[in-house]
Amino acid sequence: MKKRYRELYHLNRDLINEYKIRSNNHNALLACLKAVNQAIQRAGRLRVGKPKNQVISCCRDAIKSNNINALFRVMRGGTASS
């Protein structure tokens, strides 16, 4: 009986440790996404009206296509074709 409780204790400890790792990774991901979103919003606030919306949508498209260079180009210049 002691052996089974010990096994259960170790299994429970492993599950809790894995959960903590996943939770920390999730929180780090959320913090990074928040920082990226804030940077995109700041780049958009430099412009007014239609150009603002274009910059924000181009930034989001660059993120979707995983094109970091285009993201930086859009944030700096305001257009994806620069």
UniProtKB/TrEMBL annotation:
Family matches, as InterPro entries: Bardet-Biedl_syndrome_2_prot, BBS2_CtH_dom, BBS2_hp_dom
Domain of life: Eukaryota
GO terms (BP aspect): non-motile cilium assembly
Sequence ranges assigned to domain BBS2 hairpin in this UniProt record: 1-45
BBS2 C-terminal helix bundle domain segment(s): 50-76
Signal peptide positions on this chain: none
Entry GO CC: BBSome; ciliary basal body; membrane; motile cilium; neuron projection
Family annotation (PANTHER family): BARDET-BIEDL SYNDROME 2 PROTEIN (PTHR32465)
Protein name (Swiss-Prot/TrEMBL): Bardet-Biedl syndrome 2 protein-like protein
Organism: Takifugu flavidus
